[in-house]
Specification:
- The structure holds two protein chains of two kinds.
- Helices cover 24% and strands 15% of the residues of chain A.
- By secondary structure, chain A is of the alpha+beta class.
- Chain A has a domain of 216 residues: Alpha-Beta Plaits, CATH 3.30.70.
- The radius of gyration of chain A is 26 Å and the shape is elongated.
- Chain B is mainly α.
- Chain B has a domain of 90 residues.
- In chain B, a hairpin with a 5-residue loop joins strand 2 and strand 3.
- In chain B, helix 3 crosses helix 4.
- Chain B is extended, with a radius of gyration of 29 Å.
- The chains are: A alpha+beta, B mainly alpha.
- Chains A and B meet through helix 4, strand 10 and helix 9 of A and helix 4 and strand 4 of B.
């Protein structure tokens, strides 16, 4: 049989089979990561959804991430995947009668949770509001106040962070199910699964979610090496992040960083199912409200104020 | 009918008598009750402020402790006056009151409760709680004041004096940390 080969003007004679073979090999070569690239790149690409992985698979992912982060920050960085505790439902209380708007919580949160310093990301926004007839007037609040001293007379302060809603709108809209509400009440994000569409940011009525528009920048000497996969591990560019009730601390029984930083003790944290916890005591004896209650998101973040009921003039 | 009336009156008389007897009995018991109540504060003072394993932070360090190193040789001067030595102390706490409401005039290294008990400076919460009882209860419940440590375990309670100056207890204004950058000022330099 005579091989049918087209005459090439330059004299290169390639038959059909050889061409296809070459093309296939070439395409395969393009699809493979370039030489010297991280071996984790493929693993990263084929990583499963966090909730579909078994413990062994989670451990592998964590090993990979620990190696990656430790190399990047030249420091031993631990990533945990601590599971929710049994019979625990976290709740947060904030005494707006005591908050003085000093922003100690904001910066304690930045340090604890490895938020990007430049471009700047803050998970907590402290809103300054005028005391008056309209109790919580979010539209006329000021986030950028900078007086010499706080508190300023005639104003009160309302720190806002993720409200860990019982019915979170951000979870409903996520097209990839990269964010969900865990058993202990914390709304978590899998940064590896997030595609950065920012639907959740549009859905959140509290403006609690932040987007990594640029590569997050954390100085190696300031990074907190005690991290959680769903919490404060270094985030990739293009992912959404928010307050996780310091998941890396609270799932081990510790208080959140903001509770420990508050100089006036306005922040209370604990287990809503434990009748002796301070959050329950606060809710039973003070006047309590939640932000934007009309939206029926049912936050697990409670604001309280006023006198306790066992004091003269107090009462329900 | 007359019989019925007589019975009714005797019943009334018996009832009145029994009420009187019970009351006199109560009044006879009262002194004993009062004595018990007077003993209770001492028991309360012996009771720990917080349940173990929780702890309270110590009182802030005083510059010249122990106080007795100077005061042991000094007679107690109870008159209200401008202090010659402790000039940093400006008493803005109560409408009336002076050093020996809280300090013991004989043992200066101790504080004195209203019932005469001497307590350590680190146990000052007991002293504060004599007047601010509701606040002390709130502090023990964790609603007032600050706690650090574990939400489900060992807690460290901040001492009253961590936040309040004992002589001027009103919380002082502080400088706020810098405001967040406005979105238009944040530049995304790194295009990695």
């Amino acid at each position: 049989m005579i091989k049918k080969t087209r005459k090439h003007p330059a004299g290169i004679n390639v038959d059909r089979r050889t061409f296809l073979k070459g093309a296939a090999l070439g395409l395969a070569g393009i699809a493979l990561p370039p030489a010297g690239a991280d071996a984790g790149l493929l693993d990263d690409f084929f990583q499963k959804h966090f909730r579909e992985m078994n413990d062994e698979e989670v451990r592998k992912v964590i090993d990979r991430l620990e190696k990656e982060y430790s190399k990047k920050y030249s420091k031993d960085i631990k990533v945990k995947a601590t599971k929710p505790m049994e019979n625990v439902m976290f709740g947060y209380g904030l005494d707006i009668g005591r908050c003085i708007g000093c922003r100690r919580c904001v910066y304690a949160c930045v340090e604890e949770n490895n938020q990007s310093r430049d471009p700047q990301i803050h998970w907590i926004s402290v809103l300054k509001m005028k005391k008056g007839s309209n109790l919580v007037d979010l539209n006329n609040s000021d986030k950028y106040y900078q007086p010499d001293q706080v508190p300023e007379p005639g104003y009160f302060y309302l720190p806002v962070q993720c409200q860990q809603c019982e019915d979170p709108p951000c979870v409903k809209v996520c097209p990839t199910k990269a964010t969900w509400k865990d058993k202990d009440g914390i709304v978590v994000i899998d940064y590896n699964w997030c595609i950065g569409c920012r639907y959740c940011m549009a859905a959140c009525p509290y403006g609690a979610r932040r987007f990594n528009w640029g590569q997050p920048n954390i100085p190696a000497d300031q990074i907190n090496p005690n991290t959680h996969y769903l919490g404060n591990r270094p985030r990739p560019k293009g992912s959404v992040e928010k307050c996780t009730f310091c998941i890396q601390r609270t799932r081990e029984g510790r208080y959140t960083a903001c509770v420990e930083a508050c100089p006036v003790g306005a922040r209370k944290f604990g287990n809503l199912l434990d009748p002796n916890s301070e959050i329950r005591k606060a809710m039973e004896h003070f006047r309590v409200f939640r932000l934007k209650e009309d939206l029926n998101t049912r936050p697990q973040f409670f604001y309280f104020f006023g006198v306790k009921s066992n004091r003269p003039g107090g009462g329900k | 009918m007359k019989k019925m009336k007589a019975v009714f009156f005797t019943m009334l008389a018996v009832a009145a008598l029994s009420v009187f007897l019970i009351q006199s009995g109560v009044s006879a018991q009262q002194p004993a009750d009062q004595a018990k109540k007077q003993q209770q504060p001492k028991q309360a003072a012996a009771k720990p402020l917080v349940q173990a394993p929780d702890t309270v932070t110590p009182a802030p360090k005083m510059a010249f402790f122990p106080c007795s190193q100077c005061h042991a040789a000094m007679p107690a001067n109870k008159t209200e006056r401008a202090l010659a030595f402790h000039t940093e102390i400006a008493l803005k706490h109560m409408p009336a009151g002076w050093c020996f409401n809280c300090h013991d005039e004989k043992n200066r290294d101790k504080l004195k409760l209203a019932n005469g008990d001497l307590i350590d400076y680190n146990d000052s919460a007991k002293l504060c709680g004599q007047c601010h009882g509701a606040t002390l209860k709130e502090w023990q419940d964790g609603v007032h004041g600050k706690r650090t440590g574990m939400w489900n375990g060992k807690k460290v309670y901040e001492n009253c004096l961590t936040c309040h100056d004992q002589h001027q207890p009103a919380f002082k204004a502080i400088k706020p940390l810098p405001a967040p950058e406005k979105p238009e000022k944040i530049i995304y330099k790194n295009k990695k």
